Amino acid sequence: MDASPAPVIALTNGTGGAQLSIPQLGFGTYKIPDDQAQEAVTTALSVGYRHIDTAQMYGNEAGVGRAIATCGLARDDLFITSKLNNPNHRRDDALRSFDESMRALGLDVLDLFLVHWPLADSPGIDLAETWSTMIEILESGRVRAIGVSNHQPEHLRRIIEATGVTPAVNQIELHPRLIQSELRELHAELGIVTESWSPLGRGRMLEVPDVVEMAEQMGVSPAQVIIRWHLQHGLVVIPKSTHRERMSCNAEVLGFELSAEQMAALDALDRGERTGSHPDRVQV
Ligand SMILES: NC(=O)c1ccc[n+]([C@@H]2O[C@H](COP(=O)([O-])OP(=O)(O)OC[C@H]3O[C@@H](n4cnc5c(N)ncnc54)[C@H](OP(=O)(O)O)[C@@H]3O)[C@@H](O)[C@H]2O)c1
């Protein structure tokens, strides 16, 4: 089976600057502790991933940075994302914590920096002000693109209206039990790339009988079926695993194709079911 890297998707950075692209398949690092992150990310890079997703909140940027420093790959061949943590939304905290992330990651320039959660109802926090600080960071030249995560339609409209700058990406929970049709349509209209977090539903999607049966029929694994579904929908997908064989198998998704009927059957599994928090419930 072909294990070549997945295709890339063009990103706009909101300022009309240089065109950038994001590898459609990335490696997620949530819940990988810092002292295991170097090994996990080194393994992911060695089996072909070139896009790594971390966050201030995960506490593993230093471990990810050690893997980047020692992997022997050219910086330009890697795409690194991090995210602004919830206690860091105020301007001074955002600027300081961005500096800390860059030191931990050992990078001069980050590829993508996201606002992790909108915190729309948190007292003293205004998502448009947070987004203005993200624009300031973009304009400093130390990040190639900025985006958001967990933003609902009203949050996207508010920050774009307030600043005129559209996020390059919205990273949201997305898998066949939560297909996020409304947000995906809005993203397409606004030119925002949709990135799927918990793309395997934290592993739960792999036990859904329809998925298991489809995988058996195709001679692939349930995880490959689900990752292929994301790719064929044009989504950026960042599965996490701490096992080399799973990392490798999850990246071997270019040698087969789901039919239109199979894609529709997976879409029909939508129940609006979240594995993580609803964005409106996350506060500082
Ligand atoms: N922006 C946000 O708010 C947000 C929220 C959550 C996640 N994320 C990002 O999205 C990434 C992915 O989401 P996630 O980590 O929550 O969940 P996920 O990628 O949907 O699922 C990970 C789980 O599936 C298991 N798994 C992976 N591949 C497998 C395979 N081939 N066969 C069997 N089991 C397999 C993993 O176990 P093992 O590790 O034991 O293999 C782990 O328990 C995160 O790591 C993070 O980077 C972002």
UniProtKB/TrEMBL annotation:
The active site is at Y58 (proton donor). Signal peptide: none annotated. One of its GO terms (molecular function) is oxidoreductase activity, acting on the CH-OH group of donors, NAD or NADP as acceptor. Substrate binds at H116. Keywords: NADP, Oxidoreductase. Residues 25-270 form the NADP-dependent oxidoreductase domain. The record marks K83 as: Lowers pKa of active site Tyr. It comes from the Bacteria. Its EC number is 1.-.-.-. InterPro entries: AKR (IPR020471), Aldo/ket_reductase_CS (IPR018170), NAD(P)_OxRdtase_dom_sf (IPR036812), NADP_OxRdtase_dom (IPR023210). Belongs to the aldo/keto reductase family. This is Uncharacterized oxidoreductase MSMEG_2408. It comes from Actinomyces slackii.
